[in-house]
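lol so apparently i was supposed to do this last week
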Amino acid sequence: MTTRDLNGKNILITGASRGIGHTLAIELADTGAELILVSRGREALEELKAEIEGRGGKATALCADFSDPGAVFSLAEEIKALVPCLDVLINNAGQALSAPIEETGPGDWDRIMTINARSPYFLTQQLLPLMEASEIKTVVNIASVVATQGYPLQSAYTMSKHALIGFSKSMARELQERGYRVHVISPGGVNTQMVSGVRPDIDTDELIQTEEIAAWVLFLLQNCRNGMVDHIQIRRESKLPW
Ligand SMILES: NC(=O)c1ccc[n+]([C@@H]2O[C@H](COP(=O)([O-])OP(=O)(O)OC[C@H]3O[C@@H](n4cnc5c(N)ncnc54)[C@H](OP(=O)(O)O)[C@@H]3O)[C@@H](O)[C@H]2O)c1
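anyway here it is w/ NAP bound
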């Protein structure tokens, strides 16, 4: 068999209310996976849950604000009360910040680091006991092209994604012997609210579409050949290769 069956698997997606996480939720629900959808916005999550159930899928919506350093700990307790085993954790929630270094204050820096680096670290840590018994225990972290390159006017965001990739690399090695798979996807500009907020000048037709990112995540989760992919880097076609 070369394709892993996700039917009935419990999959948690953070940042599911819109953008990449939203598309991913719909595509994963269509595989028969049972989803736990997380973000701040209750209304958007309930709409998504209704859409998934309308397609015959299963989903639960949970709210958490990852800018609150304690939120992931209470979220993890809610998840432990909800499911006996978690198969896949997708750390996707994130926020960008466009500002010169001199104009990045401690409040903004802390918020970006807390949402993009601290929260995935401690959410993963808290959920590992719940994943231990899964046959397919997999963590997918959504990083960015800024996780491996310097980007002017995005220093705090760039730092936070470098931190996420550092965590992913160490986690992948630390948990390998226990059967975990850890994948990172690092996209360039994707057609979501995040980009329209900071780069309204970019033609949306030229951006990577959320369905493309969802397809890569599905590939990683369904792949059960002998070869293993650690990191997928996806650039806009117009950007320089390498
Ligand atoms: N778009 C791009 O070009 C691009 C490129 C590379 C990497 N990425 C990464 O891809 C991931 C998804 O981004 P996207 O483009 O889909 O952005 P998006 O459309 O802005 O969606 C971000 C998601 O994260 C959630 N979120 C934001 N702040 C949160 C908080 N404090 N607590 C909990 N959830 C929060 C949002 O939900 P609520 O607002 O309801 O909380 C939303 O569901 C991010 O990690 C981003 O860094 C994006």
